[in-house]
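Most newcomers find our protein records easier to grasp once they have seen one. There is nothing in a record beyond a sequence line and a structure line. Getting from the letters to the tokens is the skill we practise here. An example says more than a description, so a record of this kind follows:
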Amino acid sequence: MTAPDPTTITIIGGMIATLTTAIGVQWKTTMSHLRRVETKLDECELDRHELWKTIAKQAGKDVSELKNGNR
């Protein structure tokens, strides 16, 4: 068995480092997007709750009555 070529080892090491960096950047970007989506979902939940309260007020009922379908 012969010793591996130093150029090949250097190229493979460089490729591993490059891929590791690319995966790290992609992970950071994905997590940033996920945080923004979660923030928007929280805002939507608050808006939905306010809509239920407004509808219940107009109907003269409690929100729980409307959500349960009691009439």
